[in-house]
Amino acid sequence: MADNAAAGGRGGFRGGFGGRGRGGRPRGRGRGRGRGRGKEAEKEWVPVTKLGRLVRDGKIRSLEEIYLFSLPIKEYEIIDFFIGSQLKDEVLKIMPVQKQTRAGQRTRFKAFVAIGDSNGHIGLGVKCSKEVATAIRGAIILAKLSVVPVRRGYWGNKIGKPHTVPCKVTGKCGSVLVRLIPAPRGTGIVSAPVPKKLLNMAGIEDCYTSARGSTGTLGNFAKATYTAIGKTYAYLTPDLWKEMPLATAPYHEYADYLAKNHRVVGTGLQ
Amino acid sequence: MARQFEPYVLLGFADERVVERTRSAVNFTTNKIGGTPDWHQDKDLPLTKCKLCGTNQTLVVQIFAPLDGSEYLRTLYFFACPQPQCWNRPESWMCIRQQTLSQTKPEKLSGAAQTATISSTSWADDADNWGTDSDDDEKSVPSIDQENGNVIFQIPQNAPEGSDTDDESSSVEELSDPNANSGGAEGAFAIEFNSKCSVATAEIETGDESDIVSIDTPTQPRQMAEIFSYAPLPPHAHHEFACSFISVAEEKFDTQRGAKITEHELSLLQAYQQSELGGGDVQIDVRKMKVEVAGGAETTGEQYEQDLPSHGDAYAHRFLSRLKQNSGQVIRYGLGADPMLLKPLSKQKMRCTHCGSDLVFEMQLMPPLLNSLSLLHDAERKDVLDFGTVIVFTCPSACWDQRGFQEERLVVQAE
């Protein structure tokens, strides 16, 4: 325990702060922590945002509560906490992209990763990086941050579980326009490979699709499909016409957090 | 995306709690979270009040940060108002800098004389110390032979031995405690707990603050939803956070990690290789852990893309990604470095109110600090403070006036 006789010259120190050039001798007599580097730190999640703290403390019971109040999810561990075990990710494409610099061309890798639990959640992440591994890792994180809920409905009779999109929805990105059309049970997904993967991960079993534009640009194609799937919950269908009482915030105490968010969007007290 | 960062960015991590046993190690040179401020030379400065609601502010962190090349012992104290309606507002925070000239060198000689006289009460303890058993800790323990045969061991503290070349070595060890030299065992104990300065800091309890002003009403909340926020604290009480130490390490980025592929990624790549979408492009060499991707940009028409997360806040994303590389950090200290921002700072130059020189970034408080804060008298209360980051800009020349303390400029950024 009398570890550093030299460091014994400082009062109460486990290393010290100081001006530049000062020895911030990286010693800690604390609990032998891994300092956030290495594998052991990755298992324990130290929340950094307010929402993260609420989630970790168990104040928020499900991911749907976060979606209900449109709270921005800034930490991907929140998604991991709720549905991490059911999430499956898949690389849609890795391609090199080049940037012209004075010293020639610089190649980076762009990775598209789609993530979903095949039961109502889908996310898509795109990341460019110098190394393939970093690109994939970054894309997985961005995909988790972009997870949205998927609304499923029926084509005809409301028997059994919802299996298709509730209505015709369309998403656009760049020149690509993707249209999702409800299909009867048993049809399967009738589409090109890229939207097919996404729709599978979203948990949509039957769907007709129609695409227009330069679908060869995989990025735009995937993003257009993702947007279309995300719009399923934005669409007001007749069965939602009934007036529902405004749900109070799960815990009134956290309403101030909502106030901050709505301020960002610009609603506030108008 | 790896930038070149300033070489000396130090990170503080929350360490163990301060318990009775280690309380004596806490003085104005300790880095700590919570507790009561340990002022220099025990000058008790009046408690600061929140400018918004008038509640007493609570000490959040105390950082001992002497400047390079200066003899001053400099400590920064961060105070915040714990009332929920004052969170995230810059007016409810205050940073106070206090410094004293390290006077231990000249004091040592006079102090020795003092301790010599005072130790006459404990001469019996030292009488049997013939100087053999206290030499184990240091190379040689300077001792003073008194005329009556007492041998008084000065716990080595200062530059004369040359073991510590840092300025800090000349700082802490004020042997103002008359019993500080009572035996080598005490010295070893002190070295072990790094407490040469064994001045017991008094815990300031509410008894002293009986004449505190009573606040009539908190300030008007700005938005309706804030009425439903957390329960406000009683304004007249003295609130204190539970005290813990801070350990310090250098900021390091694991650049090696980027090159290595984890198993999960490898399996993803292998699945990709077999899929219809990307079969031919990827060549994976498992042994060398290398991946080669064919295909040119001309065929696909894809361009380099900035990665923007779907919540749209690029600043927050960058802040959080960088924070997660050294997760758990509560303090980021980098004099002259660039602060990590949650929102862009205003362009106007900040100037010291006292001497007019340009302020420079010194350190910032990071969100994981909130996980370590809890009220001392109300441990059940989960949320005691909130901020995104608190950045302090200090005067580079550490200017000084007669008041005994100086306020530093703070920027509080909400999440």
UniProtKB/TrEMBL annotation, chain B:
Compositionally biased residues, Polar residues: 112-123, 143-157
Residue ranges annotated for the Programmed cell death protein 2 C-terminal domain, each copy included: 314-413
GO cellular component: cytoplasm
Biased composition (Acidic residues): 125-138, 163-176
Signal peptide extent: none
Region described as Disordered: 104-186
GO biological process: apoptotic process
Protein known as: Programmed cell death protein 2 C-terminal domain-containing protein
Species whose genome carries this gene: Cloeon dipterum
